[in-house]
Amino acid sequence: MKPALLACSMLLAAGPAWAQDGWWCATDGGERLSFDAGTVWFNEHTHCTADTAVELTTANGDAWDGPVSCENIYFAGRDEEGELIVQRVPVEDVTWISLTGAADGTLYLRTDPDGDDHAYLPC
Questions:
Q1: CA angle at residue 34 from 33 to 37, to 5 degrees?
Q2: What value, to the nearest 5°, has the Cα angle with vertex 5 and ends 14 and 121?
Q3: Distance CA 123, CA 116 (A)
Q4: Regarding predicted confidence, which is higher, 54 or 14?
Q5: For residue 23, which of 47, 48, 75, 123 is within the disulfide window of CB 3.0 to 4.6 Å?
Q6: Closest Cα to residue 120, out of 30, 39, 50?
Q7: What is the DSSP letter of 101?
Q8: How confident is the model over 74-84, as a mean pLDDT?
Q9: Is the pTM above the cut of 0.85?
Q10: Any residues with CB less than 8 A from the CB of 2 and at least 6 apart, and which?
Q11: Average pLDDT, stretch 1-17?
């Protein structure tokens, strides 16, 4: 596993019943997601941070949503000293994220550009 992916493992100390530590896997087998109160990682390289004025908050017992600033993070090789070269590309069309838990344990991610629910289960 790449060091940056290891570094982005997040813990939820408290939260809705569907919240759990670690990664969530898309039910279609496509991608993974991880989150905490201020950060969401998904699409294997997309990192979103809650805007400083408003963190991702629990809207009710089974939902989190809030405004975010996102970027895609890519590893572009290593420099002469062997350090990872990281490229960060802003994702300007994602400004809001919703995470909603269902009674069956499914977690749904919705972003403002597509408006579709993407389903995840614990990996």
A1: 135
A2: 50
A3: 21
A4: 54
A5: 123
A6: 30
A7: E
A8: 94
A9: no
A10: 75
A11: 32
- pLDDT tens, position by position, 45-70: 999 998 765 555 554 456 777 888 99
C-alpha distance across the termini of the chain, in Å = 15
For residue 54, give the DSSP letter: S
Type of residue at 48: C
- The answer to whether residues 39 and 51 touch, using CB atoms and an 8 Å cutoff, is no
CA 97 – CA 115 distance, rounded (Å): 10
- The first and second tokens of residue 82, run together, are 């062997």
- SS3 state of residue 4: helix
pLDDT band at 14 (very low <50, low <70, confident <90, very high): very low
Contact in structure between 12 and 19 (CB atoms under 8 Å): yes
Half-sphere exposure (CA, 13 Å, Cβ side) for 62?
11
Instruction: Provide the pLDDT for residue 97.
Output: 87
SS3 39: strand
